[in-house]
Specification:
Layout lengths: L9 H23 L2 E3 L3 E7 L2 E2 L7 E3 L7 E6 L3 E10 L5 E12 L4 H7 L3 H21 L11 H19 L4 E12 L2 H72 L1 H16 L28
Antiparallel strand pairs: 1-4, 2-3, 2-5, 6-7, 7-8
Helix pairs in contact: 3-4, 5-6
Length: 304
């Protein structure tokens, strides 16, 4: 017998293809029928451009419509850093670097997606412009750029920023918990002026110290001169007292000589007595007519 060709019914082929398609669809539906939302995130579902009002919290969700589109929002605490040029009343612009601590309100993520878009879009549309606006508005109340370094100025800026951002951004789905000023950079021209002022102050301090040292030295010299002057005055007083004593003594002697000639004669006799004891005395002459005999000593040795 000759081999007969195998004839496959087209209906069988169609059934096989249909079965394969059904299996693929089922597998695809099963793979798309659940949703896993990461920890700290919220999932928002969309169907043909329409946003579902109720968000999906973290965890596994099954079953879900496999035709849903998904956008996950990170609702964990985050920090946004912003550097803003803030002009003050003196028309100088100071760069203020701040940090805004915030988180996305999970329950409002469908509204956020519907009104604004993704997290990045929400920050760009709401948070960043508000931070810049409030800062620049507050800068109008600051008289001088260097006042940004004052503690009370920084506290006022932080409180004003926090209050305004909390009041405005919460309705947009952003909850702000804190605002911190990280850095302040003054204008280059003002920095140069401040550095010059510091140099001038340092020079003044050095000159003040030098003047103080000179003043101390002068005070020491004055004190030394004063001490010498007092010593000289005391010495002069002592000399004057001594001279007065000597003058008084001479005056009394003169009075005694004038009033009592015998006192002179007595003194002369005492002198003669002392002379007589001198082995060098050879010849003595006495003027008998004089009230005060005067000795003439050692007129020459005998034989001269």
């Amino acid at each position: 017998m000759e081999n007969q060709p195998i004839v496959i019914d087209n209906r069988i082929i169609a059934r096989i293809v249909a079965a394969v398609v059904v299996v693929v669809v089922i597998i695809w539906l099963l793979s798309q029928g659940f949703k896993t939302v990461p920890a700290g995130h919220v999932g928002v579902a969309t169907l043909f451009g329409n946003v579902r009002d109720k968000p999906f919290n973290e965890g596994l969700h099954f079953p879900v419509n496999p035709l849903y589109g998904w956008l996950d929002f990170d609702c964990r605490q985050k920090t946004h850093q912003e550097k803003v040029g803030v002009p003050s009343q003196d028309q100088l612009t100071t760069a203020v670097d701040i940090s805004v601590q915030y988180r996305i309100i999970g329950e409002m993520t469908p509204q956020i997606l519907r009104d604004t878009g993704s997290l990045e879009q929400t920050l760009a549309v709401h948070l960043v412009p508000k931070v810049r606006s409030v800062l620049r508005e507050q800068g109008k109340t600051i008289e001088r750029a260097e006042d940004f370094f004052l503690e009370e100025t920084q506290q006022r800026l932080q409180i004003s920023l926090l209050d305004n951002l909390q009041a405005t951004l919460r309705t947009k789905g952003i909850e702000v918990s804190d605002v911190l000023i990280r850095d302040i950079r003054l204008p280059a021209r003002l920095i140069a002026q401040i550095e010059q002022k510091k140099e001038t102050e340092q020079l003044a301090e050095r000159q003040k110290a030098e003047l103080g040292r000179f003043k101390t030295e002068q005070q020491q010299l004055i004190a030394s001169a004063e001490a010498k002057r007092r010593a000289a005055e005391e010495e002069a007083i002592q000399r004057r007292l001594l001279a007065d004593a000597q003058a008084y003594e001479i005056e009394k002697i003169n009075e005694a000589v004038a009033n009592k000639p015998a006192y002179i004669q007595l003194q002369a006799l005492d002198a003669l007595r002392s002379i007589s004891k001198d082995p060098a005395a050879k010849i003595y002459f006495l003027n008998a007519d004089s009230p005060m005999p005067l000795p003439l000593m050692h007129m020459g040795s005998p034989g001269e």
